[in-house]
Amino acid sequence: MFKGVASRALGVFALFTVVCGLGYTLVVTGIAQVAFPYQANGSLIKVDDKIVGSELIGQNFEDEDHMWGRIQNVSVVEDENGELMAYSAPSNLSPASEEYQELVDARVEKIRAANPDADMDAVPVDLVTCSGSGLDPEISPDAAEYQVPRLAKATGKSEDEVRDIIAKCSKGRLLGVFGEPTVNVLKVNLMLDGKL
């Protein structure tokens, strides 16, 4: 009796392993590759057939010629083969902690010093805080607008040209309702460099 139940249970387990673990994965991957190949392969941005980044992963920019994004919590370590590997995670600091407040205050000073001609009094919060993943590729339109005078001066473009680039790299709310408007920092920087 027990052997019969055990063999049937193992048979069902094997069947569902193949169906759910292999079959389902192949079907979903196949549909994604056919219907959404760009997204299924990581939304990679290429310039001259060279991958320069992904629309989905933020990069750290802190020079005056480029738009700055959110704080990136990335640790780069070398593995046993000498290859560099990057790991990302949130800081897990409590917003009520003194250490967190010191980090935010230091970032506010840095942002204000880099953008002395900014039209807004308050520094947008997404320029001084980290996202949950530590790799958010987008900022708010306010955070982008805050940087327009610096970018115009550093790149030699007019403020309207910089705003046009920002508009081309912006997304609105999904279906006009869900989420918040965002600006992709990497795309803006590639357009400022004339690479997109």
Main β-sheet, in a few words?
Answer: 3 strands, antiparallel
- Report the C-alpha radius of gyration, rounded: 23 Å
Residues in helices, as a percent range: 40-55%
| Content of β-strand | 5-15%
Structural class: alpha+beta
| Apparent shape | elongated
When the domains are counted, the total is: 2
Count of alpha and pi helical runs: 7
**Ends apart, CA distance between termini:** 69 Å
Mean pLDDT: 88
H-E order: HHEEEEHEHHHEEH
How many E-type strands? 7
Low-confidence stretches: none
Biggest sheet, spatial arrangement of strands: 5-7-6
Question: How would you characterize the overall build of this protein?
Answer:
One of its GO terms (cellular component) is plasma membrane. InterPro entries: KdpC. This protein is of the alpha+beta class and 196 residues long. The chain has two domains: 2-38; 62-192, no CATH class. 44% of the residues lie in helices and 13% in strands. It is built from seven helices and seven strands, in the order ααββββαβαααββα. It has helices at residues 2-35, 37-40, 98-114, 141-146, 148-155, 159-168, 185-192; strands at 44-47, 50-54, 74-78, 84-88, 138-139, 170-171, 182-184. The strands form three sheets. The chain has a three-stranded antiparallel β-sheet with strand order 5-7-6. A two-stranded antiparallel sheet has the order 1-2. Helix 5 packs across helix 6 (159-168). The longest helix is centred in the N-terminal third of the chain and has 34 residues, at 2-35. The radius of gyration is 23 Å and the shape is elongated. The chain starts with a helix and ends with a helix. The model has no long low-confidence stretch (mean pLDDT 88).
